[in-house]
Amino acid sequence: MDNDEALHYLELTGDETFRYAASSGLLTITAFFPERIVYEGPLEKRLEQMEKEIEERERDAFRQFYTAIEKGEGSFSHTIKLRDSIRRITCKAVTEDNGDRTVYGVIHSEKKDFLNELTFKRASDKDPMLNMLSKSAITEYAQQLISRHDCPATFIVMFDLDHFKMVNDTYGHVFGDEVLIHVTEVINKAVGANGVVGRVGGDEIMIITRGIADKASLRPMLREIRMNIEEDYAGKLGSISLTCSMGAAAYPDHGDSYKSVLQLADKMLYLAKEKGRNRYVIYTPEMHQDLLGQVGNQEGAWNLSASFDKIGIIHYMLENYIVDGATNNEVSFANVGRNFNLSEILIVYESGKVGFRWTPESTYHNKKDLRWLTTEESFFSDFDKNDLFVVDWLDNLKDKHPELQKKLMNRDIQSALFYRLKDKGETKGFIMFARKEQRQKWSEYELLALSTIAKVFELSVYR
């Protein structure tokens, strides 16, 4: 991946870009307007220069950020508070064709204004229980911000806990309050200096961002909140799955007033709930404009599931496998199976390594159950150039692959899509997506979407 590709991946435009080559230790910072090299030299020297400008209390966090750059691992971001400005940096580490690690980054700069200095000192400005603003204070803040002629790009994020009423009903309101206090800590830590947080009612919370210019910069914050809440309560509340849903929209891109942006963020929150909870949805006109009227509409529920959920699950896979490096196969492929109405997903490795099998009833890791279909080379003879083997009708297998036909029939599978897993050109196994009902043909969209999901999984395993 070269510089241009990395910047395209980050989906950012900023005031400056930088490139750090781990093998040489060389850091290069380039400004756009006017185009010039701001700095070129050792990373350590730039650290010493920047520390002189950074507020004392911010220096430890700044050193940790530079250590992350030096290690060149994953995707990460940082906000630097200088004496007269704020710099927000988003980074992506990649492996070049020659094996060297390179970190690419984009830097946004903004001057401090009255909103960064704004404080709320009235008793009514603070929520009486949680460490955040009250409804009136967060509303006042958002309205003041958006009413300014020089208001920067701002996201309104609406947050809501999933199944919180069940927690209160089962464990009592005292325990429910303890949950809200902990969730507040999770949110405040993730937001940090990048926003202001307020409680607007019950377990519903509003986040007004600071200096987050686009969706690519917002996603890491929302992802951190979602994942930490899910992990903190996983398996601790019996059958109750305590997670969170969030909806977001931006001013001025998505609305020309506080009210219009808030309404969109509310609808995106509702959409996140309809899509199955435990997720965030950021308003995107080309994806959501036609769906807005269907949110909460029973007649539109099928179309909503058929279109938006399938797009959403691809985004989920990209974020969790490529960006975050997560490997929770059970959760990820369960989402795939449900959203594409599959009866089975099977992952088998050529080496005999145990994969797993998902069905709507459960997930299996039994080696015997997984090895019902071997990966002999003859099995891959009909895979196309995209590493796909499409079975629309079992009768098509009887001449060339009778054994495969028999095995699929024994499992009540009527149609299947196979994707070959490869590493450096060598076959390593396959993923099977299958359905029990007889169907006319796999659609072009299904082929594209499922092969993309399989490719994302392949990249995460063998990159």
Structural summary, described in words:
It is built from 15 helices and 17 strands. Helix 11 packs parallel to helix 15 (about 445-460). The radius of gyration is 25 Å and the shape is globular. It has about 475 residues and is of the alpha+beta class. The strands form 3 sheets. It has a 6-stranded antiparallel sheet, sandwiched between helices. Strand 12 and strand 13 form a beta hairpin. The model is unreliable at about 1-15, about 115 and about 300-310 (pLDDT under 50). The chain has 3 domains: about 5-110, Beta-Lactamase (2-Layer Sandwich); about 115-295, Alpha-Beta Plaits, CATH 3.30.70.270; about 330-460, Beta-Lactamase, CATH 3.30.450.40.
